[in-house]
Amino acid sequence: MPVKEKEPMIMHPRPSSIVAALYTLRDLDTDVVILHGPPGCCFKHARLLEEDGMRVVTTSLDESGFVFGGHDSLVEVLEKVIRRFNPKRIGIVGTCASMIIGEELHEAVMDVQPDVPVIEVEVHAGYRDNTKGVIIALESALAAGIISEAEFERQKSLLKEATMVEKRHGAASKEYLEPNRGDLKFKVAGRLLELMKQGKRGLNILNAKKETAFMFADINLAVNQIAEKLGSPIINMANLNEDVGLPKNRRNAREIKEELKNRGMDIHHITGGLDEYPVAGNSANQIIGEKYSDYDFAVITGVPHALPMDNINNMELFSITNGPRQVIPLKEMGHRHVMVEIDLHPRTLGINHIVESEFGATLREMAKDV
Amino acid sequence: MSKQIAIYGKGGIGKSSTASNVAAACADEGYRVTIIGCDPKSDSSITLLRGRRIPTIMDLMRQGVDIEEEDIVFDGYKGVKCVEIGGPEPGIGCAGRGIIVAISLLKKTSKAIEDTDLVIYDVPGDIVCGGFVAPVKKGLVSEAYVLTSGEYMPLYAANNICKGLSRLEMPLNGVICNSRGAPNEENIVSEFAKEIGSQLLAFIPKDVLVQTCEREGFSVIEKEPGSAIAAVYRKLARSIMTKSDARVPEPLDDARLRELTKI
Ligand SMILES: Nc1ncnc2c1ncn2[C@@H]1O[C@H](COP(=O)(O)OP(=O)(O)O)[C@@H](O)[C@H]1O
Ligand code: SF4
Ligand SMILES: [Mg+2]
Prior knowledge:
The complex is a heterodimer. Chain A is of the alpha/beta class. Chain A folds into 2 domains: 17-147, Nitrogenase molybdenum iron protein domain (Rossmann fold), CATH 3.40.50; 185-368, 3-Layer(aba) Sandwich (Rossmann fold), CATH 3.40.50. Chain A has helices at 17-27, 43-51, 63-68, 71-85, 96-100, 105-112, 131-143, 149-169, 185-197, 213-230, 247-262, 277-292, 327-333, 358-367, and strands at 32-36, 55-58, 90-94, 118-121, 202-207, 234-238, 269-270, 297-302, 316-321, 337-340. In chain A, helix 13 (327-333) links the parallel strand 9 and strand 10 (337-340). The termini of chain A are far apart. By secondary structure, chain B is α/β, with parallel strands linked by helices. Chain B has one domain: P-loop containing nucleotide triphosphate hydrolases (Rossmann fold). Helix content of chain B is 40%, strand content 15%. Chain B contains 11 helices and 8 strands. In chain B, helix 6 links the parallel strand 6 (143-148) and strand 7 (172-178). In chain B, helix 1 (15-28) crosses helix 10 (228-242). Chains A and B meet through loops of A and helix 4 of B. The structure holds adenosine-5'-diphosphate (ADP), iron/sulfur cluster and magnesium ion (MG).
């Protein structure tokens, strides 16, 4: 019997599988999700998701629910949801509490017999990788006939890559990662402007996860605008393919691409879709290897650690992430300047246009004096 | 389509001996049989394996080893597939959750519950929480049997189980009397079966052979095939494999139950 290579225990808190399932249901255009569990479970994200127009309600299991089971509460909430919101697509998502006591989500659905599709997601927060929550949600969507087998397989392989990216250089790469605010933005902006003034050649790469691109793109936009003004040759790459992924991701890619175009930014290379950030870095890597390996610097926004170092090793790297725990791994990979857009994600929910980033604003402000 | 049955009854009443003897009898008739021990005691398959204890799914999960079919499914008497779920130590963790996780792992790694003619779930006497009915709730059990003697306490437990089944709207396929030598036992259990809307499928007499064979690690079917008790198990096995009348039971109230055992 092969002994599983026990993976090291990771102590810092990480994204939850339940939350991952919730976001996946949103990407599938689910109208209302019922969290079957304690009232406070996933509160922060449930609230944020409402900004994106998806309702999240809870069956509010309490001590007595834990002891006697929560079937009746689930039936009651499901009936209420149908009456109150008249949804076209419903999700029911498990939590640690309901899964441990053996709740069957399907039983409630059988009792109520809604005439709209219900995606049942038997998930809890005890998985090592939060991508498990996405996979379970997609499996149920497949079973409910909402996505195709081909899309499911595509998503599954992307998620496997995403997990690997986090293991190699991300949040799952070390037993403990110290959070870090990164380098001071005005100092780094100064250095970047200096390079552009010298006419150095740069790569401007957006490799962002889903809607976070609404803010990361602002940085790439600022870099493009200023490079043009200063006469620094810039190549733009972005994972904004609008022809792949779940409905919301396609929509968002289109919106961002159009806005960038309207604001004067040409994208020279599309590296993949908004959900392809774990692999889009590889296609960027290949393009760089073929054409741009002698460039001087690169600005990489979103998930910079998904970009292999092979062809950018000798460039001066300016990387922007939204994870304070991503700073140290990026520095260790060789990214010279690493900045964090704190609290980026909440500000990219419920919108369909690019929002201003701190680093983008800093660049624009400092470029005025050049 | 395979038969998937669960045998319920008070702890110590004889579920595991009945399950393993029925399994062996069915294997004799040429059926492919799988027995899944859901009791943390993990003693369901021991008499099909000549007294050998097999590693339980939960033992392996705790060790963090990669689990494959051959680590958890073992061939017993005449190819009966034996699986023990096992459980945490008494008083620690959550045995119910363990059953849920183990069943889904078994489903994923093995065809033992699909490519077969009969699956017997040997469940623990007390259905203490949601996890213990996971096989039923996950749609893995299609037939339920209740095992009882004619004494008050085992009947009380049997009646309680019927309450649970009726709540789950799970039909009952029959009542089996495993005799403890109480007076008028067959009539009492037969009457009980009738009143809850079921029927008495078999009367298994108390026979010391069951225990002597068990002590040596055998079913009576294997060790004493010519005995009278082996014939009883064989007859029971046949009626399980052929009959399929089932109705959601209507449990009795306690007063009636007490009265019944007075006869
Ligand atoms: N018909 C029988 N005659 C004699 N002994 C029996 C009979 N049925 C069961 N036993 C014995 O009773 C004991 C408890 O049975 P077991 O099958 O382990 O119960 P359970 O699984 O319901 O807890 C065992 O030692 C078993 O050999
Ligand atoms: S422990 Fe699990 S069920 Fe409880 S609040 Fe956290 S995620 Fe939700
Ligand atoms: Mg037993």
